[in-house]
Design a protein that fits this description.
Radius of gyration: 16 Å
Distance between the termini: 32 Å
Mean pLDDT: 83
Number of strands: 8
Shape: flat
Low-confidence stretches: none
Helix content: under 10%
Amino acid sequence: AVVSTQSTGILAGGRGKGTFSSGLKGGVKLSKEPGEIGQLTEKMIGFNLVTKQTSAQGSPVSNVMVAKALNIVKETYLAIVLDRSYGGPVIVASPDGGVDIE
């Protein structure tokens, strides 16, 4: 079976731990059943996703990305963020990745 992942197309962090107004928990889903992709998509598109970076109403989801999942041996985290107190870009890196890094 093809393993696919779905990610909502909103500009907010914490999607994996978010909740949809449809009742679906989690904005990133893994599935080994191709037939399940359509069912998951129906519970995402047209509904709002609430995360720790959205308002209480959440953000409307109008599209999802479906891609073949890969076996991940190790996750790391790298970001370039603008630091107001420093007045410029700062690199944030961690040897640990995953949904809890934010």
